C-alpha cells in the first residue's frame, strides 16, 4: 500500500489517522501518511498498518488514491455491515464488531471495524473509539508490536473477545441477583432491569455467531501470510465468540424464565387478593339482602313496634355470618 501512494506529490493530512510501520521483529514505528509515502517497506517481514476514521472525508480521499479495488472501497465505507470474511484477489476483507465501553454509551451498541488485509499492508476503518484498537496501540508502544499482518489480525480478534467478556459476566451477575430475588419471593423485582438484561443479551448475541463464522472462515482459508500460530489464535478467538454467544443464549433464556416467574408470582398475588374480595363479597351478600329487606319503608314490617326486634335481627345476622364462615371453610375457600 505504501508503494502505491509514492506517486502522490501533494502532502496528505488526515486528522485521526493512525499509521505504523512494523519491521517484523516486534518493533513498530509510528508515522504520518506523508512519511508513509516515503517509507521503505521492502525489508523482509516489514508491513504497514493504517487505521482511519471512515467518517472523515479526507480519509476517504486518501483511501481512493491509495489504489485499492472499488469493491473493497465500497465494502470498507458501507453504511452498515455485519461481521464477515471475504477473500478478494490477493487480500481479505474482514468486518468485525467490538463492545462499546465508551463513556455514556450502551455496550450493546457495538462498534464496527473494517479491515483490508494483504501480505504487507493492513488498512482498517472505524468510526468511534474501539477499546481493542487502543489495546493494540498500547502494546505497540510497549515494544510488543505484531510481527505479521496475520499476527495483527489475530491479536485484534482476541482483544475484541476479551473486551466482551466483562460485559457478559456483568449480565450473568445481574440475572443471578434477579433470580435470587424471585426465589426469595421479593416483591420489588426490577422489571426494567430484567428487560434491559434480556435486550442487551439479545442484541449482543446478534453479532457473536456471525463474528465466529467470519473468524472461522479466515482461519480455514488458504492464505500465505497466516502462520500456524496465527490460525491457532484466530481459532481461539472464534471459540471464545462461540462461548460468549452460548452464554448470551443462556442469559436470554434465563431472563425469559425469570420474567415468566415474576408474572406468575404477580398473577398469584392478584388471585389471592381477588379471592379475599370474593369471600368478603359472598359473606356480606346474604346479610346485605336481609338488611335490605328489613329496611324497606312499607307497612307490615315485623317488629316495627317492638323494642327487642333490633337485637333479634342483629343475632340473626351474627348466626348467618358464622354459618357462612363455617360453610366457606368447609368447601375450602380459605
From TrEMBL:
Transmembrane regions: 275-296, 308-328
Gene3D superfamilies, per the entry: CorA soluble domain-like, Magnesium transport protein CorA, transmembrane region
GO cellular component: plasma membrane
InterPro entries given in the database record: CorA_cytoplasmic_dom, CorA_TM1_TM2, MgTranspt_CorA/ZnTranspt_ZntB
Topology term for the membrane: Multi-pass membrane protein
Any single Pfam family the record assigns to this protein: CorA
SUPFAM superfamilies: CorA soluble domain-like (SSF143865), Magnesium transport protein CorA, transmembrane region (SSF144083)
Keywords: Cell inner membrane, Cell membrane, Ion transport, Membrane, Transmembrane, Transmembrane helix, Transport, Zinc
GO MF term list: cobalt ion binding; cobalt ion transmembrane transporter activity; magnesium ion binding; magnesium ion transmembrane transporter activity
Subcellular locations according to the entry: Cell membrane
Main location: membrane
Family statement drawn from the similarity comment of this UniProt entry: Belongs to the CorA metal ion transporter (MIT) (TC 1.A.35) family.
Entry protein name: Zinc transporter ZntB
Organism: Flavimaribacter sediminis
Lineage: Bacteria, Pseudomonadati, Pseudomonadota, Alphaproteobacteria, Hyphomicrobiales
Amino acid at each position: 500500500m505504501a508503494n502505491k501512494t509514492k506517486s502522490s506529490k501533494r502532502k496528505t493530512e488526515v486528522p485521526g489517522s493512525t499509521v505504523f510501520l512494523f519491521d517484523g521483529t516486534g518493533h513498530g514505528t509510528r508515522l504520518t501518511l506523508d512519511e508513509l509515502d516515503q517509507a521503505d517497506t521492502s525489508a523482509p517481514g516489514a508491513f504497514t498498518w493504517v487505521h482511519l476514521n471512515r467518517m472523515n472525508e479526507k480519509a476517504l480521499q486518501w483511501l481512493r488514491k491509495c489504489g485499492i479495488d472499488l469493491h473493497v472501497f465500497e465494502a470498507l465505507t458501507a453504511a452498515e455491515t455485519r461481521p464477515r470474511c471475504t477473500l478478494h484477489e490477493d487480500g481479505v476483507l474482514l468486518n468485525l464488531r467490538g463492545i462499546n465501553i465508551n463513556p455514556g454509551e450502551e455496550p450493546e451498541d457495538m462498534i464496527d471495524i473494517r479491515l483490508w488485509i494483504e501480505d504487507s499492508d493492513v488498512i482498517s476503518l472505524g468510526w468511534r473509539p474501539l477499546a481493542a484498537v487502543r489495546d493494540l496501540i498500547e502494546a505497540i508502544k510497549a515494544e510488543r508490536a505484531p510481527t505479521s499482518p496475520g499476527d495483527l489480525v489475530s491479536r485484534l480478534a482476541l482483544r475484541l473477545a476479551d473486551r466482551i467478556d466483562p460485559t457478559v459476566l456483568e449480565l450473568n451477575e445481574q440475572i443471578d441477583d434477579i433470580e435470587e430475588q424471585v426465589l426469595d419471593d421479593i416483591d420489588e423485582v426490577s422489571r426494567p432491569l430484567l428487560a434491559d438484561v434480556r435486550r442487551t443479551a439479545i442484541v449482543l448475541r446478534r453479532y457473536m455467531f456471525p463474528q465466529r463464522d467470519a473468524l472461522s472462515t479466515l482461519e480455514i482459508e488458504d492464505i500465505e501470510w497466516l502462520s500456524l500460530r496465527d490460525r491457532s489464535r484466530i481459532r481461539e478467538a472464534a471459540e471464545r465468540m462461540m462461548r460468549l454467544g452460548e452464554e448470551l443464549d443462556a442469559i436470554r433464556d434465563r431472563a425469559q424464565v425469570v420474567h415468566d416467574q415474576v408474572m406468575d408470582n404477580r398473577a398469584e398475588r392478584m388471585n389471592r387478593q381477588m379471592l379475599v374480595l370474593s369471600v368478603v363479597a359472598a359473606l356480606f351478600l346474604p346479610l346485605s339482602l336481609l338488611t335490605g329487606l328489613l329496611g324497606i319503608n312499607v307497612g307490615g314490617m315485623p317488629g316495627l313496634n317492638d323494642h327487642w326486634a333490633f337485637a333479634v335481627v342483629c343475632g340473626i345476622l351474627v348466626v348467618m355470618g358464622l354459618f357462612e364462615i363455617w360453610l366457606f371453610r368447609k368447601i375450602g375457600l380459605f
